[in-house]
Amino acid sequence: MKSLILKIESLGSPWKTIDPFLVCAHHVDHYPRGNNKLGPNSSSSLDESADVGFDEAGTWNMYFGRQVPGFPAHPHRGFETITIMRKGVVDHSDSMGNSARYAEGDVQWLTAGRGILHAEMFPLLNQDGPNPFELFQIWLNLPAQSKMVKPNFKMFWAETIPTHHVGTVDDGIEVRCIVGQLDEMLPNTPPTPPANSWAARPGTDLAIWTIKMAPGAKWTLPPADGVDTRRQLLYFSGKSMALAHEHVNSGTAIEVCCSKPVELVNGSEPSELLLLQGRPIGETVVQDGPFVMNSTDEISQAYADYRLTQFGGWDWSSKEPTHGRKSRFESL
Fold first, then answer.
1. DSSP calls for 206-238
2. DSSP code of 40?
3. Each residue of 241-254: pLDDT tens digit?
4. Do 276 and 255 share a domain, yes or no?
5. What residue numbers bound the domain in which 232 lies?
């Protein structure tokens, strides 16, 4: 009998993904208590000589923020970012005038399209204790005919994202469906993706789910609808499990057959997986930094357009704006 597992490889950093996805970054930081400027209350929070990039030697990173951790204003073109918050807070600001603060359980879906400038800052709101932080950011490709669409920003608030339980909370399965329905018979449906997304097209069979499994829990992943659909399980937390009767360890990316059900039997520790699924776009991908196009000429044009227009400019008072101490919000 042919194995239902098509490929297993190490997750790496960032995580490699399958078409139509481009990559997935998993940021985990153990920030200390915050100061009155929403940055870390630590003497090591700002060192002009330090590498503020993706150095994983410590327990937290400033990334490119100088006072507050995060990613100050930077451009994108030609793809979408899907940011899944697990812990902490993100302050979003962009060149279209959008702003939002989103937190644990929320998802932001940003269609960069023909070009957008945005900032993602991680304010540390808790001044009395630690500020744990964790998110996934998935890059989803756009097909050639959609790469120059108007940029779009959409929030999926936590309470709008359906969560399905199999068994009890303590010994069962939790499947959270950000996009793509688990079962058409279930009452709650996931939020609608932006109109120009590959996910919004009929027949693309796109799904993004997070899966939690209690020790010893068993669950059968149902088959997908599409004939050409690909499906990948990113096993990022836990120890090991049996997947389609084969032993797999955590820290692996597993591509599985979509046309048949696949049984998951968890091992002795709680496990978590991120499921990515969709029909491939099947086009040439040329990426250079924040731009993802179909040719090197288009990449050159993206840089030229950005130098000329700044993708709408930046009306915020800072390149790394934060939104005070408000609760989570969206203003358009």
1. -EEEEEEE-TT-EEEEPPPS-SS-EEEEEEEES
2. B
3. 999 999 999 999 99
4. yes
5. 1-12+161-283
